[in-house]
Amino acid sequence: MFQNFDAPSAPVTGDSRLRDLRNWMQAQQVSMVLVPHNDEQFNEYLPVNKERLAWISGFTGSAGSALITLQDAILFVDGRYTLQAAEQADGNHWRVESLIDNPPHKWLQSNASSEDGIGIDPWLHSASQVKQLNGAAEASGAVVRHLPENPIDAIWHDQPPTPLEPTRIHDFSFAGRTTADKLEEMQTKLEANKADLCVLTDPSSICWLFNIRGNDVVHTPITLAHAILRNDNEPLLFIDQRKLDIETKAFLTQVADLHPPSDLESVLEDLSPRSRVMLDSGICPFGFNQLVEKAKGTVVDAKDPVSLARATKNDVELDGARNAHRRDGAAMVTFLAWLNEQRAETMNEISVAQKLEQIRFDMAGNMPMRDVSFDTISGSGPNGAIVHYRVNQDTNRQLQNGELYLCDSGAQYDDGTTDITRTMAIGTPGEDERRAYTLVLKGHIAIALARFPAGTRGMDIDILARMALWQHGMDYAHGTGHGIGSYLAVHEGPQNISKRGTQELLPGMILSNEPGYYRTGRFGIRIENLIIVREALEIDGGDRPMMGFETITMAPLDQRLIDPVLMSDDELHWLNAYHGWVRRELEPLVDDATADWLQAATEPMIRDLPSASA
User: Fold this and answer.
1) pLDDT-based confidence at 409, cuts 50/70/90?
2) From CA 495, how far away is CA 501, in angstroms rounded?
3) What angle do CA 38, 52, 477 make, to 5 degrees?
4) N or C: which end of the chain has fewer CB within 10 A?
5) Is residue 443 within 8 Å of residue 462, measured between CB atoms?
6) What is the rounded distance in angstroms from the CA atom of residue 391 to the CA atom of residue 397?
7) Which H helix or E strand runs over 182?
8) This prediction's pTM
9) In the 8-state DSSP scheme, what is residue 401?
10) Are residues 346 and 297 in the same domain?
């Protein structure tokens, strides 16, 4: 199995570790320390030796930050993790604040004083984050101090070693472009920015650019490395060569000059004098800014030049994604048919998640399942209301009749990364659940049917997914959609659909469409399909070409949870057309019993019936 459900072996009580940290702080003469959920490469999911926030606080979510003072400990999380943070962090020592409404820099502006020294590790904060912190410190009279070592590393005496998983070549049949072709495109980006050098820190960008993959981070097929692009020579790739076999090393030496990671700072220092160096101030550690400027180089603040090229998938990558979702859909349908036949008392959150993983693995065929794309969110009843709930042996809950079961899962295949959420009724659902599910579905369909002109951003259409909920006094505290990689990270920027989604949506981008609703203590609902941004097309009667979305996820929606009275004709037409497509695509790929269930689950729904069979 690719995931385990072990409970934390020793819950972080907060006392001893915070005491050790505060002793270290006093020795360093700082009154506050900021611990972000970052590593030096700003990965969302971290290598085990970089889980510093989890080690000090007990909080295991994928986003957050901690501010520890000599008297207080504050955990900042967004709306996805409010309940999880309260459960995982010891309330005797920690309190939870909103990462959105009152992030650390705002808290410091209001609460720090001229007597405070705020300690940060400059290799875990971007230039933009340091600018925010400096502004907050200036407003309060405090001082930001760049620490000589990471404060958690200084006291984490049994810290695991750096991962050294094998790096492998990502075949051209999946990548669709050669590394040489991609590097040539990057040269034009350097020229456009009049830059001599560009430091790449995002492992997803590096893996995409050099057509390599790895397993240094759980469930994310990246290899940890850095790169320096040069405008007058081949790029430099800083990677531990113990991770390279003969074939991979030979492949990489054709396109890059290989160096050990320990050479990165000294090489950059040697190259920087009188050079213009591109650094992405949003994702590049501020330590690089300090290094370049100290060496008399000039920092050029520019976006990671790989990110948009990586996000706008080529035809080979898009076909791979479609194929991956067809296989994944067959596994999901087999799982849903199995789930429908089980008695509630025979299932719990862990056993159901394990069953889905086993079905995916067994049905992968000649394109093996490499991993899950993230730990399965398997939440029944009130656990489904915890947006990024991760079940373990201590929280594992039996499924119960009359409740909802939310399952958010995905897989990694050589030709694509999948991510799908389905919410199912266990037994007969209540009217509150049916009403909420239908409103979420209306928002999902609004995104699926959206037409929009070139230049539209994620923030421009996020409201479409929320409108039906808003009209009933309801909402959800997460974005509507994230980008997704091509056998890479399940969460990929720069594209997203959210209130803060400023990136223009471009043809070839893959995003999720996942509105939800969560009633604390009772149930959670989320409906997620992946969608591709389509090229602009002429619309009959219109005078401007419009882009739209192609849905690629295949699995039925639970019609027991849909109230057709709340649906418009267009929405019912989309639902029935989607179900018809799912049935046609997947029926040949599943066994007879599953095909029979699929036929019933995708029967057309009409308004004059209270519900349709599931």
Assistant:
1) very high
2) 7
3) 55
4) N
5) no
6) 8
7) helix 179-192
8) 0.92
9) T
10) no
For residue 518, give the 3-state DSSP assignment. Answer: strand
Compute the distance between CA of residue 94 and CA of residue 68 in angstroms, rounded to an integer: 9
d(CA 491, CA 483): 6
370 and 503, same domain (yes or no) = yes
Q: Total domain count for the chain?
A: 3
Strands (E) across 132-177 are located at 143-146, 168-169
348 with 256, same domain: the answer is no
Whole-number Cα distances in Å, 423 to 108, 330, 516, 561? 40, 17, 10, 9
Dihedral-angle region of residue 14 (phi above 0 means left; psi in -120 to 50 means alpha; beta otherwise): left
Residue 549 structure tokens: 């979305």
* Strands 492-497 vs 481-483: parallel, antiparallel or unpaired: antiparallel
Instruction: Tell me: do 306 and 317 sit in the same domain.
Output: no
CATH, residue 94 = 3.40.350.10
Nearest to 399 by CA among 446, 332, 344: 344
Residue range 64-78: mean pLDDT, rounded = 93
Three-state secondary structure string covering 537-566: ECCCCCCCCEEEEEECCCCCCCHHHCCHHH
Residue 212 lies in a domain: yes
Sort 133 into a burial class: Cβ within 10 Å, 0-12 / 13-18 / 19+.
Answer: buried
User: Both tokens of residue 9?
Assistant: 């072996």
Bond from prior residue into 494 cis (ω within 30 degrees of 0) = yes
Q: What is the pLDDT of residue 12?
A: 61
Q: What is the CATH number of the domain that holds 404?
A: 3.90.230.10
In 3D space, the residue among 337, 295, 591, 567 whose CA is nearest the CA of residue 434 turns out to be: 567
Express each pLDDT in 292-339 by its tens digit. 999 999 999 999 999 999 999 999 999 999 999 999 999 999 999 999
Please check whether residues 478 and 586 belong to one and the same domain. Answer: yes
Would you state the pLDDT for residue 612? 47
Which residue shows structure tokens 């300690």? 119
Question: CA-to-CA distance for 483 and 25, rounded, in angstroms?
Answer: 39
DSSP label at residue 471 = T
Q: Is residue 613 part of a domain?
A: no
Residue 1 lies in a domain: no
Confidence of residue 8 (pLDDT cuts 50, 70, 90): low
**545-582 pLDDT per residue, tens:** 999 999 999 999 999 999 999 999 999 999 999 999 99
Amino acid letter, residue 114: S
The chain-wide mean pLDDT, for the chain, equals 94
- Tell me, yes or no, whether 133 and 196 share the same domain: no
Q: Are 390 and 60 in contact (CB under 8 A)?
A: yes
Token pair, residue 113, equals: 């004083």
Amino acid in the structure at residue 200: L
Look up residue 398 and give its two tokens: 């039996």
Neighbours of 498 (CB within 10 A): 16
> Under a CB-based contact definition with an 8 Å cutoff, are residues 234 and 187 in contact?
no
Beta bridge partners of 74: 67, 95
Q: How confident is the model at residue 459 (pLDDT cuts 50, 70, 90)?
A: very high
Phi and psi torsions of 109, nearest 5°: -60, -35
Question: Containing domain of residue 588, as a range?
Answer: 312-601
